[in-house]
Design brief:
Length: 160
């Protein structure tokens, strides 16, 4: 069982088969045996305020946080297999790879709507709540805002 605190700063891993788990690239993997429960501190994304000529590190961090929020939310709701089905659908039907979601939020939203119809807005809201929580911000719904509008606003706050 994996328990994530509401502020997403700690991950607590418990296993009935006494296995040690490691957090790697947003995935929990089993790597060995253990005899006690372990708590692993999950790093909080840091934001570099200096702009490089062509690369804005903040954009990369924000993109990574969005992908992490999407992964976590889809796996929480649909489990691993269901999340993979959604990614496959987006790739095959919308020509949108997982890695492109942050750059093509409108396509992601449209693909979810094609697949899930009215349930897409609920999933999008859960993803946004997860993302805002990772940024230690409070998510507030706004009239007339769609998924991509919230992400664009976050980008503007990062000035990227």
């Amino acid at each position: 069982m994996i328990t994530i605190n509401t502020d997403f700063t700690f991950i607590q891993v418990k296993s009935d088969n006494l296995g040690i788990f490691a957090w790697q690239n947003g995935t929990v993997t089993e790597v060995g045996e253990m005899t006690t429960q372990h708590t692993v501190k999950k790093p909080i994304a840091s934001v570099n305020t200096k702009r490089d000529d062509e690369v804005c590190e903040k954009t990369g961090k924000l993109n990574d946080l969005l992908l992490s929020a999407v992964d976590e939310t889809l796996k929480q709701v649909f489990k691993e297999a269901g999340a993979q089905v959604i990614y496959n659908f987006l790739d095959n039907q919308s020509h949108l790879k997982r890695e492109e979601i942050a750059e093509k939020t409108e396509d992601f939203s449209a693909g979810l709507k094609r697949l899930m119809v009215s349930a897409a807005s609920v999933i999008e809201k859960m993803i946004l709540e997860n993302l805002y929580s990772k940024l230690r911000l409070e998510f507030e719904e706004k009239e007339g805002y769609g998924f991509s509008d919230y992400f664009k606003e976050l980008r503007e706050k990062c000035r990227c």
